[in-house]
Each structure stands twice: as C-alpha cells, then as structure tokens.
C-alpha cells in the first residue's frame, strides 16, 4: 500500500521538508525563521502545494520536529510558572543536588543558575503522604482555594504540582489540580504523578517544573501549527517528534511539553538507525552537522540508545530521551580568538541570519562554511544547487580580518586551522558516546548527515579509526526523513522498590499489566490498531545501598522465576561493563518499572536496486583543487554530481560529490560505493553494492 507522508524539520539555519509517496520522494529546503519558527514550515508547505502541485488533502500524515521547547528553556522565555509543594519542600529546586558541572569544579566564582521558578512563586500546602502511599495529613480543600486566589493575583500562566510521595498516591495532587483548574480556567496545571511518577524528589520536582514552564509556549506553538496546517489543506493527523525518538499527537504533546526538548535532533537519529540497518550497518554512530550544532548518538543492533536522565542548564530533567551529545559545531559556527590569542571555533553561530560572511547578508565573522569555501571544498556556483549565491571574497575578508591577520598567517592556513579545530571538537564529542561509555568506535560505522556532516565525516572517522562512513541519499534532509519513518512512542514508569529476590513472578506481572493497560489506553486514543502495538518492558535495578541504577530490559519471555534470574544476571553483566566490576554476592533491588509502548505506523519500504555500471563517467563534472588535510596541501579532486550516481558506481578519492543539500568529501586512499538504496559507502576498500560483505 502506498502511503503519502510529509516530514518537516526546523533547524537553526534551514527548514527541510521531505515527502514520501511510495518509492518516490520530494525534498524542499527553505531558510529558517528564528523569530517565528513555524513560518518556515508553512512556507515549505506552501511551496509544496503551489510550486509542486501537491494536493495536501491526499497526505496521510505530517510529522514535525521543532526546537521551540529547547529555545524557550535555554533563552528563559517560558511562561510565568508557580510551583506547589508539600509544606517544607518549596526549596527543593534551589537546593538541588549541590553538584557542579565538570567545567566549574575549580571555578571559585561559579554560581548555580537561578531556578526557572523563583522562590516567591513557590507555594506550600499542608498535607503529607508517606513512603507507603498512606495519608498521614489530609489536604484541606479550603486552603487550596485560598492558594488559587493568590495564584490569580500573581498573574500565573502555568502551574507545576509536586507533592511528596505522590507517585505512590496521586489523590492529593489530583485534588489540587482540580481546584486550580476551576479557579484558573485555561491555565496549564501539570502534576508530577503524570509527568514523572517515580522517586527522587528533586528530579521529579525539576522535571515537572520545566514541563510546566514550557507549557504556555509549546501550547501556543502547537495550536497555531494545527490551525495553519489545516488552513493549508492538510486535514489528516499532525504528529510531533518527541525526545524519545517517537511521534506524539498534539494533544499528548501539550500535556507533556518537556517531551519535546530534543525534538529537533531526535528525528535524525531515528533516520540514521533505519538507514544503517538497510545499508548493512546495524551498529553505527550517527553524526548530524547542520548550521548551528553537531549532534552525535550511538546506535546498537539497529536501536537508538536511550538516556533516562539529563541536565538542561544545570537542572535535572528525567524523561526517556535519545542519548545524544550536542556541541556548538556547525557550518555557521564562528571562528574567534580568545584573550590569549588562541583560535577557537563555536559554540556561537551566525545562524540563518546574518549567516556566514559568504552569504552576503551582513555577517562579518568567519565561520566553518567560509573556511570550507576558501579551501575549495564547497563549490560557490553549486551551493543549494545554485539557488543561493555565496561570495568567496566576503569569506576571504572575514578570515583575513579576524583570524589570519591577527595571527600573522595566510588566509589558507587560517581556514585550514578553523576546519581542523572544528573536526577535533566533533571527534571529541563522538568519543563521549562511544569510548567513554565502553564502546570501541572501530566496531561501528560512521553515519554522517546534516548539510555539513558528509564534508567532515572521513576526517572524524580517521581520527577514531572508524572503518566505514555511510552518507544517506539526502544527507541535508535526513532529520526530515526520520520524521517520515518514525512511529508513535509513549513511555510509562512506576516506582516499586523491592529486593528482586523477594519479588514473586505474579507481583511483577501484575505491575507490568497495570502499565500496559495505561499504554493501551493511550495507543487506543491515538487510533493505533491492536496488531500494530508493541510493548517493551524494562526495570531500573541497583545493588542495595547504591545511589544509581542501570536499566535492564526484560525479554519477551513469560515473567517467571527464570525471567527474574535472567534479569539479575544481566544486571551483574551490565554493571561490570559500565563500571568495571560486579558483586554477585550482593543483594539486588528493583526501583522502577518501565514500559515503552510503540504504535507502528504505515510506511513505505523501497526495495534496493540492482547494481549497474561501475564507472561513474556520466556523473563526472570536472576537477578542482581542494584541501587535503593529511598532506596539508591543495590537490586536484574529481567532482561528481550526486543526482547522476546510481547503484554500483565506484568512486576513488580524492573526489568530491556535490548535491543540492550537501557535499561529500572522499579523501585520497578512500573508495566510495553507491549501494542499492543510493547511500554512499566510504571505506579503505570497496563495499559490495548489494550490501553484504
């Protein structure tokens, strides 16, 4: 069955649209509009309708990735939010964990960022539920009504409720929520028992507070998108990408705004996992280098790895998120000299406007794109397929004025230094998700995308001794393509503390059944048929007395004595892998039960093409001189048009492959093969076009 789906990814510099219709695809790229992110998405849809004559009423679904939540948090542009806590706990946000970020360990002047909810807007209610879920001090409804009146006087735009041990009994939170919703209609009121029903008071409070803080901004954005997309003629389902790599409906996204914090980069990792499996590399490290940032993630056995906790602006945020490391290293990252005269690159970015100096839009700071242009790695006549004019003279002036002149070196050497530093920064970030977590990068392929990713990929691979590099068919559109292949995903968690050896199979099965009922209710509301649902169970486990847990998956085997024994054994093995030791004689306890519910959506799976001719003569455009980092000199490179390459073509470096959304560099000593899905497979030896070794 042919399914027509659209994915729109809003990046810091460009907004990308991909439409899949059976085995054919259509792509669009428009400049992002940072002041109004949704405007670029609507502009892309308008082009699709008016220029390409696509009837949007025939589209089955539109999936959308956004950085609205991320930007609102980092720029502190969320709503005016109140926090309601149990008496005596209003300062949990302030006390936090008393830790410091690594960069500030020796900084005597370091100060923790202010909590997103200031102390005057943190309120207490007199109530108490104990750790067993028993009510010790009842909540007085009249006191809550008085509190609601105070919130109205403060002009509160959103409310976070986090009462002690509400994950064991949410009744008090529910009562507070009901009273405030009646008193403040239209104001988002979020309960920690909905957002994060698990133990650890600070993490639960912080996560709920962040979600509530984002609620007004996210709600306004999503409601506007729904209205304007409908006005464009798209009447079918709109989905929003979540941080966990799954799609969500607008209604559910509004109820849990924090789930969108990594919406932008998550789609690219989902696409990378799908591409890696089809290309024959289920174990891959995905790198996404766009205009403003570099996102790197590890994929194992075709699955994106999840992190259950992260820190955002030094605040704890505990929801399942794809394990993505992000640094400020993109095509628009600016080169600058610090106070000691050392060359630095990023994290500041020229963004979409004014953009790199070569764009001619008023930018004067040199960027990575300017450096690549001066090194011959980017064709000024073919940028965005020739749709955008870039000016090498402006790039040269920026590098000379800001870097080469002050350092007393040539413009070419300064440009090479800029690229060398950004490559080193990206290699370091890649080590964070591989080497520092016990994985040998030599056992993985490097899957490079984003508009700038394929230009830098092989240098990063050589630094880490990664043997293979995979470049998707549309690298600059990969995140948008990930939205098209993603499924609906919901995560559920429930705290249940007990020694694993004392838990009966019946108790464990009953607890997971309760989570599955909640999951099925959610998928039913999403319209997912029973046969398209998948449930994955796992437990957070630790040694008794430890302060940290490891998440251990529970296989599809029936929950019985063997399953519990297998869980314990897997925990010992995982602990040894992560921390270098195991203690089999120590008792093990479970802390949280987790369930990941997937609603598998209809999607197209194009069949691979059979290889044809090996020689890509028809795709060759000519030659030009470009920089080779290994020899630190200019060499002649063969130039190829990606749109003319077909399955079976083999290219030998030094060569450059140009396409409308990206440029791929093939250095000397590397060979590039076009596989059956039109991916470029780069290695020191030829890769069989049929995708097996």
UniProtKB/TrEMBL annotation:
Hydantoinase/oxoprolinase N-terminal domain span: 5-183
An annotated GO BP: glutathione metabolic process
GO cellular component, as recorded: cytosol
Acetophenone carboxylase-like C-terminal domain mapped to chain residues: 506-680
Domain called Hydantoinase A/oxoprolinase: residue spans: 204-490
One Gene Ontology molecular-function label: 5-oxoprolinase (ATP-hydrolyzing) activity
Pfam family, one: Hydant_A_N
Classification via InterPro entries: ACX-like_C, ATPase_NBD, Hydant_A_N, Hydantoinase_A, Oxoprolinase-like
PANTHER family: 5-OXOPROLINASE RELATED, HYPOTHETICAL 5-OXOPROLINASE (EUROFUNG)-RELATED
The name this protein goes by in its record: 5-oxoprolinase
Lineage: Bacteria, Pseudomonadati, Nitrospinota/Tectimicrobiota group, Candidatus Tectimicrobiota, Candidatus Entotheonellia
């Amino acid at each position: 069955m042919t399914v027509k789906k659209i994915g729109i990814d809003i990046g810091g510099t460009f907004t990308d649209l991909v439409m899949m219709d059976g085995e054919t695809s259509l792509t669009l790229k428009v400049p992002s509009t940072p002041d109004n992110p949704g405007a670029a998405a609507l502009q892309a849809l308008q082009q699709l309708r008016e220029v390409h004559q696509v009837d949007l009423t025939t589209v089955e679904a539109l999936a959308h990735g956004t950085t609205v939540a991320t930007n609102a948090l980092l720029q502190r542009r969320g709503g005016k939010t109140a926090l309601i806590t149990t008496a005596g706990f209003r300062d949990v946000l302030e006390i936090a964990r008393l830790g410091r970020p690594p960069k500030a360990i020796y900084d005597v002047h370091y100060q923790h960022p202010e909590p997103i909810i200031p102390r005057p807007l943190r309120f207490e209610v007199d109530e108490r539920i104990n750790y067993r879920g028993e009510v010790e001090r009842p909540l007085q409804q009249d006191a809550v009504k008085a509190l609601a009146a105070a919130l109205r006087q403060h002009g509160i735009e959103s409310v976070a409720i986090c009462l002690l041990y509400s994950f064991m009994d949410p009744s008090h939170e529910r009562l507070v929520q009901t009273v405030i919703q009646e008193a403040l209609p239209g104001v988002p009121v979020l309960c920690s028992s909905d957002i994060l029903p698990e133990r650890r008071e600070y993490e639960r409070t912080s996560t709920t507070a962040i979600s509530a803080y984002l609620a007004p901004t996210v709600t306004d954005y999503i409601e506007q998108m729904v209205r304007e997309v409908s006005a464009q003629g798209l009447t079918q389902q709109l989905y929003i990408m979540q941080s966990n790599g799954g799609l969500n409906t607008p209604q559910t996204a509004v109820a849990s705004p924090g789930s969108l914090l990594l919406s932008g980069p998550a789609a690219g990792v989902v696409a990378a996992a799908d591409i890696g499996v089809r290309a024959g590399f289920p174990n891959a490290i995905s790198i996404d280098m766009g205009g403003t940032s570099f996102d790197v993630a590890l994929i194992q056995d075709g699955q994106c790895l999840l992190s259950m906790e992260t820190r955002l602006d030094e605040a704890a945020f505990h929801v399942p998120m794809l394990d993505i490391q992000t640094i400020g290293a993109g095509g628009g990252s600016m080169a600058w000299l610090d106070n000691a005269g050392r060359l630095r690159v990023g994290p500041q970015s020229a963004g979409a406007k004014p953009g790199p100096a070569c764009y001619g839009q008023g930018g004067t700071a040199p960027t990575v794109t300017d450096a690549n242009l001066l090194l011959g790695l980017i064709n000024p006549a073919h940028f965005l397929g020739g749709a955008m004019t870039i000016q090498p003279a402006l790039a040269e002036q920026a590098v000379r004025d800001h870097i080469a002149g002050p350092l007393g070196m040539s413009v070419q050497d300064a440009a090479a230094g800029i690229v060398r530093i950004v490559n080193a920064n990206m290699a370091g970030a890649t080590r964070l998700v591989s080497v520092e977590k016990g994985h040998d990068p030599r056992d993985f392929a490097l899957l490079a995308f984003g508009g700038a990713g394929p230009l830098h990929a092989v240098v990063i691979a050589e630094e880490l001794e990664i043997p293979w590099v995979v470049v998707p068919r549309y690298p600059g559109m990969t995140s948008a393509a990930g939205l098209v292949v993603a499924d609906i995903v919901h995560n559920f968690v429930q705290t249940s503390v007990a020694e694993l050896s004392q838990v009966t199979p019946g108790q464990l099965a009953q607890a997971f059944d309760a989570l599955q009922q909640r999951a099925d209710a959610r998928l039913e509301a999403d319209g997912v048929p029973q046969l398209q649902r998948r449930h994955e169970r796992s437990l957070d486990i630790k040694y008794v007395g430890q302060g940290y847990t490891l998440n251990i998956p529970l296989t599809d085997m029936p929950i019985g004595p063997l399953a519990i024994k297998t869980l314990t054994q897997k925990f010992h093995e995982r602990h040894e892998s992560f921390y270098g030791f195991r203690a089999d004689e120590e008792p093990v306890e479970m802390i949280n039960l987790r369930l990941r519910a997937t609603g598998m959506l209809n999607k197209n799976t194009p069949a691979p093409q059979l290889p044809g001719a090996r020689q890509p003569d028809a795709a060759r455009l000519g030659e030009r001189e470009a920089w080779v980092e290994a020899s630190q000199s200019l060499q002649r490179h063969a130039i190829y048009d990606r749109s003319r390459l077909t399955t079976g073509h083999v290219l030998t470096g030094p060569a450059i492959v140009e396409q409308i959304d990206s440029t791929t560099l093939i250095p000397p000593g590397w060979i590039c093969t076009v596989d059956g899905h039109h991916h470029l497979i780069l290695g020191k030896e030829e890769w069989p076009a049929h995708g097996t070794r």
